[in-house]
Amino acid sequence: MCGIVGVITKEQAIDKIYPALIALQHRGQNASGAATFEQKFQIKKGNGLVLSVFSPKNLARLETVYKERGIFP
After folding, report:
1. pLDDT tens digits, residue range 1-38?
2. Domain spans of the chain?
3. Which of 3, 13, 64, 66 sits CB 3.0–4.6 Å from 27 for a disulfide?
4. Cβ-Cβ contacts under 8 Å for 39 (sequence gap 6 or more)
5. C-alpha span between 70 and 21 (Å, rounded)
């Protein structure tokens, strides 16, 4: 199973996507990831639950790198 979230915004996309990832993680708990586009694609993925893949340190980075558009499968 899996869940996919897509967002287009002029605000910080991670503020909208991270809660959705938490809500969807019961659909697939083996891995979590994100692909965003801001001039070029950025990908962050890893094995484990959302809280493991997107640590507070990673979230701080995502707020500046993954700004406006993102697909977080």
Report:
1. 677 878 887 777 777 778 888 888 888 788 888 777 77
2. 5-72
3. 3
4. none
5. 12
